[in-house]
Amino acid sequence: MLRELPLPMGLKRAVRQVRDLQVPAMSSRWQSWLRSQNTRLRRLQEEAGELLGRMQLWRKPLETIGGQFGGGVQSYFLFLRFLVLLNFLSFTLIAAFVLIPNLALPINNTDQYSSNASTGLCRIYDPTPEGLVDFYSYILDLLSGTGFMELSVLFYGWYGGVGT
């Protein structure tokens, strides 16, 4: 707590010496042990806070950007860092609650595209193209989630076994 006060070092030393002299001489072992444990816990909390501050993603480069280009540019990159972390959180949640359960518990459904085909309400849809296909169509399918991606677990609209 004394470390956080905006005082000169000499005054902090004097306050610390006075505080150390005010320790009661007749304190019990329990009180002295409790005081030492409080001191250790406070130091541990300070060190953990410093460690978390050092482990922050892109901390040093963002400080450099702020020093060279100002706080406005630094705040923009801090916002970008927040978006990256939010994207990582979204990926983690989707992987934990959608991808891993679908991979761990596969549903065998051979009639997934023609659930209403017997009544004639829906045509059979085949997402794999036939014939000559442009080379970039696979890249577009990967980015947009269409084509061959519709047969994978990564496609949000496909839940095998629903409705049959």
How would you characterize the overall build of this protein?
There is one protein chain. This protein is mainly α and 164 residues long. It has helices at residues 9-21, 29-54, 59-69, 71-104, 136-144. Helix 3 packs antiparallel against helix 4.
Quick take:
This protein is mainly alpha-helical and 164 residues long.
Write the layout of secondary structure elements.
Layout: H1 9-21, H2 29-54, H3 59-69, H4 71-104, H5 136-144
Helix pairs in contact: 3-4
SSE sequence, one letter per element: HHHHH
- Cα gyration radius (Å): 31 Å
Low-confidence stretches: 112-117
* Distance N to C terminus: 65 Å
Please identify the oligomeric state.
single chain
Mean pLDDT: 79
Q: Structural class, from secondary structure content?
A: mainly alpha
Largest sheet entry: none
- The total count of strands amounts to 0
